[in-house]
Structures are given as structure tokens and as C-alpha cells.
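Quick note —
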Amino acid sequence: MAKFRRISIGTKATIGAAAAIVAATSPLNATGLSALTRTSGNNLVRVGEGPKTLAPFASVVFCMQHKDQCVSTGGPSIMELDKNRKSQLISINNSVNHTVRPVNDKPGADVWSMDVTAGDCEDFALTKRQKLMQLGWSSGSLRIAVAITNNGEGHAVLIARTSEGDLVLDNRFDSIKDWRKTDLRWVMAQTGDNPKYWAKVKADVEEPQLVSARVAVSETAEINRSNAHGEHRSNIAMTFAYFQ
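Predicted structure written out below.
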């Protein structure tokens, strides 16, 4: 049985959304994917899995309610990003971003849901993960991750591990980017072998300071799609739990 230790973190920030326009001549840009970051040769720099850490408490509840989404389905941990898979990524990311209405959780509550018509950032990510798994993507290649933007905003996204890199599907943008080309400072993500468990992200960047150490704690997650002036307002609050 799981024993829970409850810890809350939160942020509230207003940011200006700035999207870099990349050259239309790139074959990846033609498909809606941003240019990917590679090391020398054919070696890709991937999101590293560090030590196990606290799982978001809402994810524990989600896994109790949706056991099929929190087990290993087998299959490759890295999906070959052929033309068909690339099209699936772009289609699912765009369709979920434009059909799900951004709505905040009620004050004091953090509920993770999927296949929704309205929700906040993790609901977008979970819905994308579910739809891609229905198309044959393996559970180990699709991981929910928690991060902080460079403006101190807490955020959740979906990372797809592919032959062309670890790609980020973000409800704030329709572009799909390599994990190192985002504005995110990575905190934790689901482990590859078991979606119920989480680990710190091991990256070649300074480990982010917990937002709660420098910003007043908010009560719940809140997102809004960028308005015509490029502004984006957001809160996030999460509770974490140990699996033992």
C-alpha cells in the first residue's frame, strides 16, 4: 500500500509567449516539427533518468482510477519516427491543443484527467498520451513530465521518445520541439519501466530551485491559452506522494 507524504508547490506568473519562426525550407518544419538538437554523429542527447522521487499525488489517484494507463504495455522504449509516426504526433498534438478548452481545477484541488473536453496542462498531456497509445505507441516511449518555465511557471507536458530525439508536446504551442530547445527547466518525469513511478530528470543543466522556495504557494493549477497580445497566465500547485 502506498504511504503518502503531502507537499505542495506552486507558482503564479504572467509571461509573454514568443515563438521562434524557423526556416520553411527545413523538412522537419514542413511537417510541423522544430529542428532537433543532435550531438556529434548520430548520437542523440536524451532526457536522463535520475533517482526516484516523489510522484505527484494526483498522478497516484489517476493511476488508481485508470490502471490501464499506468502499466507497461511492452514494445520499444524509443519509437521509430517514420512518416506515419511523425504525422500522428503532429495530428494528436494539434487536435488536443485546439479541441480541449483550458479550464482551471477548483481551488484546493488538483485532479488529473484524460480524454477531456476541458482541463489544465496535465489533462492535455494525459489525453495526448492516451490517444497516441491507442495508435500503437508504447507506454515507455510516452512520459508525462513536470517542469518550470524560464519565468518560474510550473508546467506539465508529454515527452515522446523517438529515433529523432525526445520531443515535447506542449499545450501552449503547436510546434513540437526537442526537449533542449524549450523554455523548460526539467524537474521530474515518469520512469520508462513503470508509469506509476517518477524520477528526477537528469540533464546537463543546473537543477531548478523549487518554486515554493521563492514564490508564494498557489492553491491549484491554472492555465489559459495565450491571448492576442501573446500573454499567458498560469498557476500550478501539486501534491506529492511516496510509493512504498
